[in-house]
Amino acid sequence: MGGLTLLALVSSLLALQVINNGGVMGFDYGDAASKTLMFFEAQRSGKLPSDQRVKWRGDSGLRDGFLQGVDLVGGYYDAGDHVKFGLPMAFSVTMLSWGAIDFRKEVMDINQLGHTLRAIKWGTDYFIKAHKQPNVLWGQVGDGSSDHYCWERAEDMTTPRTAFKLDPEHPGSDLAAETAAAMASASIAFRLYNSTYSYLLLAHAKQDELLWAAAWLFRATGDEYYLKYVVDNAASMGGTGWAVGEFSWDNKYAGLQILLAKVLLEGKGGAYASTLKQYKAKADFFACACMQKNDGYNVALTPGGLLYVHEWNNLQYASSAAFLLAVYSDYLSAANAVLSCADAQLGPQYLLKFAQSQADYILGKNPQSMSYIVGYGAKYPVHVHHRDASIASTYVLHTQVGCVEGFEKWYRRAEADPNVIVGALVGGPNRNDEFSDDRSNYEETEPTISAAAPLLGLFSKLQSAVGGSGPSDAKKSPTTEYHPAASGVPVEFLHSITDTWTVAKTKYYRHKVIIKNTSKKPITQLKLRLENLSGSLWGLTPTSEKNMYELPKWLKVLKPASQYSFVYVQGGPQAKVSVISYK
Question: What PROSITE patterns does the record point to (predicted)?
Fold first, then answer.
């Protein structure tokens, strides 16, 4: 056994022992992941669904885009305000998708895959609306200046809902590329569960080709065209030139470099290997800088051990860096490789151990003994810089709260927030680990979706690696748990792929569809339409009408909350199932 391989093996075993003994404080990472997804429900804009779990929120922004003649209802509010900023929203969707892709089993094991896919889809549905034409992308709704002069609930908004777009006369390549990356990554996340939606997302994503988007498009399609693009433009666009110590919605170089390092580590570089090695060198720089092994060129740490990048909302940089380290740890481990830094060679488990240290700091292992995720643990921020959390819900206070009244009666209140915005990751402490739980201290108490999004994958990975009971509702999850509901009827369908095989270069899929009665009444004479069905089907009875099917004769009634399944086999995308009629 070579010295390098032996070193990797020994360091990995030692680090694994440290990780397995590291959960001294008993952090429930599965519960933290579950709460993170609750925060995304609290940030929803638009018409809220019937399964909304954050009950103190109501419908809002129902006329977004109407002044410009476009439907921009939906999406997410960025932070403690009510502006829908396209760039951080798209980054957040990319991070949720990346977590769902690389840590799919881990997310499933804590029974959060369905909630994760719903959180992703809430964003991508909005992006599809914002991208109605090939060269037009609506990138923002709401005016930051006027919005920040008001302290009011989303349901009461009186500020202008001006929409801003990108087009040939108003370019914005960074936003277009991030949106493309979001849809490309989401297409991978949905591929096994809703292939029709996956293909739709991919079609939208293919209309931009900057490095970050192209890297995700290569992973989504396997098309060498995109790999060639990131290689040909590596130097001119900074991909192999920038060595960075941060990863965020505003700087994606480290994420790009780690994505492309994966291609090299998997032996798929081919003729592009030399350039991919340059990308990997920069990925290693980022990881080594975080790990404090980069010959002095390291990311700063607080005395308590937190990565410290910027004064304003620093935890977003710690959360995203920890997620990248967890991802890179897996990539190195799969390739039986180590991280070669200027000061040391580190086995993959050491990266995961450091990622865990950042997660533990966030959850309460810090000088303040405070969880910086609202609603997690015994002590967490209760004066969050967030309009909707700080003002009584419309279900409690029925009268409108105006801009000035909001500041006078609610913003300056000494009392805790009336609404606990569960899962919100606040900005966090300063460089000395000091934290002031003050609503006016927006640098430290304002949460953002871009800070929370990387935590879903990170916590899911740690729950698997470290163990623990998981969230209280976490049971052994099924192969698939995403339920795309049929619109306007009390029936929902659960699509899953239960087997695959290849015959003469054609890949076939065995699809299982569960039909569930979600109403409190029995359903009879259910008639379904199956579009794009090209293979064999079992479990439904064809009618005389084309593409129309009924339940078997022996199943006369689908009782409340009961379900029935059918199966079909075909190559290509899944069939589209819809309800035509029922009684």
Answer: GH9_2
CB 293 within 8 A of CB 287: no
Evaluate if residue 60 carries a pLDDT over 50.
yes
Tell me how far apart the alpha carbons of residues 115 and 52 are, in angstroms, rounded to a whole number: 11
Distance separating alpha carbons of residues 283 and 337, to the nearest angstrom: 14
For residue 22, name the pLDDT band (cuts at 50, 70, 90). Answer: very low
Please give the positions annotated as active site. Answer: 385
pTM of the entire predicted model: 0.80
* Dist. CA 182–CA 345, nearest whole Å: 33
pLDDT tens for each residue of 532-560:
888 888 889 888 888 889 998 888 898 98
CA dist 145 and 63 (Å) reads 20
CA distance 574 to 568: 9
How far apart (Å, rounded) are the C-alpha atoms in residues 250 and 478? 37
Give the residue-averaged pLDDT of 143-170. 92
Distances (CA, A) of 356 to 23, 321, 324: 9, 11, 12
For residues 558 and 58, which has the higher predicted lDDT (pLDDT)? 58
Written in H, E and C, the secondary structure of 450-492 is HHHHHHHHHHHHHHHHHCCCCCCCCCCCCCCCCCCECCCCCEE
What is the distance between the terminal CA atoms of the chain, rounded to a whole angstrom?
Answer: 70
